[in-house]
Amino acid sequence: MNAAADSWIDRPLLGFDTETTGTNVADDRIATVALVHSVGPGRENETVATWLIDPGVEIPEPAQRVHGISTEHARTHGMRPAPALDEVAGMIADALRQDVPLVAFNISFDLAILEHELRRYGLPTLEERLGHEIAPVLDALVIDRGLDRFRKGKRTLTAVLEHYGLTQDGRLHTADVDVSATLDVLRAQVAKFPQLGQSSLAELHREQMTWHRSWAENFNEYLRSKGRTPDANPNWPM
Q1: Does 110 have pLDDT greater than 70?
Q2: How many Å apart are CA 25 and CA 115, to the nearest integer?
């Protein structure tokens, strides 16, 4: 069974990913951003925009090993953060105003660090630009957890690609490659779970909030059972 006629999956999508100096959304900085405007399956239907940013701080060795961007390279070739991030946020806001969904894998991290960065440089946040919550958003990780809740194994982008029998074109943890791979995952999810394509973007946004909250509550309960501090935020996408 295919997605319903005139489904959102057949209309434009905007994929989004960041590579950063670390995983603390309040203190770490963005080193690269990719936005991929997609109008159908296949790389020939994608328009890619990328930004290399000088984060203004040292990029730690562990982060360099993940994405391959050195402090020296970012300082030599990167844009200043404020104009780059203002451009990124403007493009995202323009898309969302036209009801083009923002697509990512674990989007809460990318949105949170972007919003912190915008505040750091005195720029309007996405929520301020939109005048409402950041929506519509599609998170392939949240959808995977929600619709295939009891599947064993990891839920990294690499693992989810393997689950759907997909191969990536290029090196993962390069922002534009990760975005294209995430768009492939989303289309595979719609093919496997036709109800996704049959739902409206507003319905899906609300459903993802429920799926994420359920996952976070269960994960926090698991952490408590192991004597660890629960740290999964039940709110989504921010």
Answers
A1: yes
A2: 9
